[in-house]
């Protein structure tokens, strides 16, 4: 799992890596430029005109190295430098000396439109809003119609904090080794575009001396987070779980959770639904068992916890009186692993004193609006949300998945993991209900809270990627469910 460092730590990391690996900073820059070019060549054909706009720092040095390497591959390159080259960084100056004369150069003010613009003006070092000629250039580039690509960071975007002022609007951002924190903020999507991470040879040991509570998970050693089962394992070993939810007109939510839990490997799945939902569940999911309800339209509050390994509560539940009583009963009387989602979260937002019933075996899975209701804080600042999620979990000794692109997993020890799986095509009703079923299933199988969260969220995202690749905007939540087994196969999970 990749540690995410702050922008001010990147120079120290580079210096440490150069020292320990025996290469020069120039060679490290060459390595990064090669990684960028490999990605670029795989996505863009030769023959189109390319403008590369370079500052005079190390990000500009990356840009010059990229210009040279792409030119060697037959691409038509024009370089525009902003700032005083004589006062540039050492590696910028060295790359400027290596720039072939065959590469055209122009004053940025006279820059003509190109099919592709590569932004290598500012990297991780910027800590204030763009001004002067730099602001003028970025505003000019943002009016261009061609494809726009940023090297490491979109110019004008700070590494770790929200944007303040004009920022280059990239269609693709190719960042090196790990994503800088602000690249993961949803409010920065219009600047970052597609985020691509390219490893440049650094190993976990090079990050050991740097403190950070943030991690980025792309499936590395995924199997090590999974529990192993032996040949004599039976359905009881794979967990007895209860999924609670559904209401008149909203039975689809809990059905998706039930199906997802079974596809994730739950041994025995019981569900607590209102009487109006019994035939729906029994006919559409014969593998599930319905706990006999006593009410037709409303969910009743009768629930025994004996022999239950995990509970998931919330999908389609509603926020009526009985639903509220059930949420309180589960949190107060069941000490085992519990997933709290959807209406169960909304109930906690209304009954704020019940938040004190949360415990170390609870994981909450809010989307952004549910998170606002849970915490009582409205914000468009994702850094504030991330910090609030961390504080919430440490205070209430629980875990939380803040859902969205790069979902943030927060744990009671203060650690946070950004998940790197998923697709925009998962933005459809019911996707969160699928995750609830998957998490409850893993917890019922005996996974720790952290194992279940990491595996559940990652496989949920990967199953969504598989569905989205085939169906694009036609993807439904049930398509995610059907691709859960394929996600296991892709990652060789037995």
TrEMBL record:
Keyword Nucleotide-binding appears in the UniProt entry: yes
Species, as recorded: Cyclobacterium amurskyense
GO biological process, one term: nicotinamide nucleotide metabolic process
Residues that hold K(+) according to the record: 59, 119, 155
Cofactor(s) in the UniProt record: Mg(2+); K(+)
Binding site for (6S)-NADPHX: 58-62, 123-129, 134, 152, 316, 367, 433
An annotated Gene Ontology molecular function: metal ion binding
Keywords of this entry: ATP-binding, Isomerase, Lyase, Metal-binding, Multifunctional enzyme, NAD, NADP, Nucleotide-binding, Potassium
UniProt entry tagged with the keyword ATP-binding: yes
Cofactor details (free text): Binds 1 potassium ion per subunit.
Family per record: In the C-terminal section; belongs to the NnrD/CARKD family. Belongs to the NnrD/CARKD family.
Cited PROSITE patterns: YJEF_C_2, YJEF_C_3, YJEF_N
Residues that, per the record, bind AMP: 403-407, 432
Designated name of the protein: Bifunctional NAD(P)H-hydrate repair enzyme
Highest taxon in the source lineage: Bacteria
Subunit (UniProt): Homotetramer.
All residue ranges annotated as the YjeF C-terminal domain in the record: 218-491
Listed CDD domains: YXKO-related
Stretches assigned to the YjeF N-terminal domain: 10-208
Catalytic activity as recorded in UniProt: (6S)-NADPHX + ADP = AMP + phosphate + NADPH + H(+); (6R)-NADHX = (6S)-NADHX; (6S)-NADHX + ADP = AMP + phosphate + NADH + H(+); (6R)-NADPHX = (6S)-NADPHX
Record function comment: Catalyzes the epimerization of the S- and R-forms of NAD(P)HX, a damaged form of NAD(P)H that is a result of enzymatic or heat-dependent hydration. This is a prerequisite for the S-specific NAD(P)H-hydrate dehydratase to allow the repair of both epimers of NAD(P)HX. Catalyzes the dehydration of the S-form of NAD(P)HX at the expense of ADP, which is converted to AMP. Together with NAD(P)HX epimerase, which catalyzes the epimerization of the S- and R-forms, the enzyme allows the repair of both epimers of NAD(P)HX, a damaged form of NAD(P)H that is a result of enzymatic or heat-dependent hydration.
């Amino acid at each position: 799992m990749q540690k995410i460092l702050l922008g001010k730590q990147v120079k120290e990391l580079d210096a440490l890596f150069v020292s320990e690996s025996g290469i020069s900073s120039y060679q490290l820059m060459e390595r990064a430029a090669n990684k960028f070019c490999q990605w670029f060549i795989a996505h863009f054909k030769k023959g189109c005109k390319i403008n590369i706009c370079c500052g005079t720092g190390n990000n500009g040095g990356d840009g010059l190295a990229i210009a040279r390497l792409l030119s060697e591959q037959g691409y038509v390159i024009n370089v525009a430098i902003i700032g005083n080259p004589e006062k540039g960084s050492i590696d910028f100056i060295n790359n400027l000396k290596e720039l072939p004369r065959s590469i055209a150069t122009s004053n940025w003010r006279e820059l003509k439109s190109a099919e592709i613009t590569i932004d290598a003006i500012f990297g991780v070092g910027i800590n204030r809003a763009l001004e002067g000629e730099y602001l003028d250039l970025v505003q000019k580039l943002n009016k261009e119609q061609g494809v726009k690509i940023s090297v490491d960071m979109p110019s004008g975007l700070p590494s770790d904090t929200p944007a303040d002022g004009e920022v280059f609007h990239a269609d693709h951002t190719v960042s090196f080794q790990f994503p800088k924190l602000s690249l993961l903020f949803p409010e920065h999507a219009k600047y970052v575009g597609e985020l691509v991470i390219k490893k440049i040879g650094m190993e976990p040991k090079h990050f050991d001396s740097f403190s950070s509570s943030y991690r980025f998970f792309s499936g590395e050693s995924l199997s090590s987070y999974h529990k192993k089962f032996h040949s004599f394992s039976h359905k009881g070993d794979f967990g007895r779980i209860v999924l609670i939810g559904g209401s008149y007109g909203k039975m689809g939510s809990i059905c998706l959770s039930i199906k997802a839990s079974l596809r994730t490997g739950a041994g025995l799945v019981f569900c607590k639904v209102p009487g109006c939902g019994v035939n729906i569940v029994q006919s559409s999911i014969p593998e599930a068992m319905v706990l006999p309800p006593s009410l037709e339209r409303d969910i009743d509050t009768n629930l025994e916890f004996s022999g239950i390994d995990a509970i998931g509560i919330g999908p389609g539940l509603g926020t009526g009186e009985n639903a509220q009583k059930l949420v309180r009963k589960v949190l107060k009387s069941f000490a085992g692993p519990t997933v709290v989602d959807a209406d169960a979260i909304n109930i906690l937002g209304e009954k704020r004193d019940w938040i004190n019933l949360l415990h170390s075996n609870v994981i909450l899975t809010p989307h952004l609006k549910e998170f606002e209701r849970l915490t009582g804080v409205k914000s468009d600042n994702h850094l504030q949300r991330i910090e609030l999620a961390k504080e919430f979990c440490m205070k209430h000794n629980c875990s939380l998945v803040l859902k969205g692109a790069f979902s943030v997993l927060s744990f009671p020890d203060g650690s946070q993991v950004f998940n790197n799986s998923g697709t925009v095509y998962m933005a459809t009703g019911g996707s969160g209900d699928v995750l609830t079923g998957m998490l409850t299933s893993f917890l019922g199988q005996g996974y720790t809270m952290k194992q279940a969260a990491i595996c559940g969220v990652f496989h949920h995202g990967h199953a969504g990627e598989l569905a989205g690749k085939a169906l694009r905007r036609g993807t439904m939540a049930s398509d995610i469910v059907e691709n859960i087994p394929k996600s296991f196969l892709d990652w060789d999970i037995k």
